[in-house]
Design goal:
Blueprint lengths: L2 H27 L10 E6 L2 E6 H23 L1
Antiparallel strand pairs: 1-2
Length: about 80
Amino acid sequence: MDGSQLGRALVLIGLGLVVLGGLVWGLTRLNLPFGRLPGDFAFGSDGFRVSIPLATSIVISLVLTVVVNLIAWFGRR
């Protein structure tokens, strides 16, 4: 990989992070129930909290799988 390919890859990674950050920021402002779905575990005590978003992780995984497969399918056409 030469310098121009590395630079292009870093720019694309940076743009992807900006888009991902914008999506996370925008979705948090919509007050969606992610992190509070049935199957998401949260427990703790004074000054200590543990959150295990199992159901949210599964939903996000399914959505991303469908999106990536659709992108790959349209890319082959």
